[in-house]
Specification:
The protein is mostly helical and 219 residues long. The chain has 10 helices and no strands. The protein is 70% helix and 0% strand. α2 (32-47) crosses α5 and α5 packs parallel to α8 (142-169). The longest helix has 28 residues, at 142-169. It is elongated and about 60 Å long.
Length: 219
């Protein structure tokens, strides 16, 4: 946008127009909800950067060009900021999982697609991957790590349901036991692939060559 304004009759900008400029600038400030999103997006972006061992609120505030006090107007603590990222992960992943289980009839195919969705989510959101595997939570509140553990417990539980259905479809005599073993192995594979992705500096894509091991674990 240009710094100058043109009066309808071609004269210089009126005093009233000049006086309204600060008010217009004030109106462009993010609303409270928008600022929260901006903070979380910036935090996630910083987690993608090399050497992001621990992000301080001072560094986050500097990146946003605001004071630390401004951050705490939107979040009570840094732990609450990370909880915001975890909530995004949970909502995004389990919305997709629900779509898969409602759409696909084959239990084995459901399990394969759930695993692939998790890996692809990590690829598209590298900063979130560091949260998912716990690297970004090492120096943070213990409850954050517990919550991510619960996230993968929930993933494994959903895989068990799908794989039990798949084992029944294949005529297994022990569908529940088979489902438990396969779900545990697939969850470990998912976590391992995401960890490798994060610790390789996001170079080793987690979904690379995943089709064959997933097919063998679900059939």
């Amino acid at each position: 946008m240009s710094d100058t304004t043109t009066d309808p009759v071609g004269s210089e900008a009126s005093p009233a127009a000049e006086a309204s400029a600060p008010a217009a600038a004030a109106r462009k400030r993010p609303r409270p909800g928008e600022r929260r999103v901006q903070i979380l997006q910036t935090l996630a972006g910083m987690l993608e950067e090399p050497g992001a061992e621990r992000i301080t609120t001072a560094a986050l505030a500097a990146r946003l060009e605001v004071s630390e006090a401004a951050l705490y107007r939107h979040f009570a603590s840094k732990a609450q900021m990370f909880e915001g990222l975890i909530e995004f992960i949970e909502a995004s992943v389990f919305t997709l999982v629900k779509q898969i289980t409602e759409r696909d009839e084959s239990g084995s195919l459901q399990a394969q697609r759930i695993a692939l969705v998790l890996l692809q989510f990590g690829e598209k959101n590298p900063g979130m991957t560091r949260v998912m595997v716990g690297d970004a939570l090492v120096f943070e509140h213990e409850r954050l790590t517990q919550r991510m553990n619960q996230f993968f417990d929930r993933v494994e539980s959903q895989l068990r349901q799908c794989l039990r259905l798949g084992a029944q479809e294949q005529g297994s005599a022990t569908p529940t036991a088979d489902a438990h073993a396969m779900a545990s192995a697939i969850t470990a594979l998912i976590v391992g692939r995401l960890q490798r992705y994060a610790r390789s500096g996001f170079r080793r894509l987690p979904s690379e060559g995943i089709e064959v091991p997933l097919q063998r674990l679900t059939n």
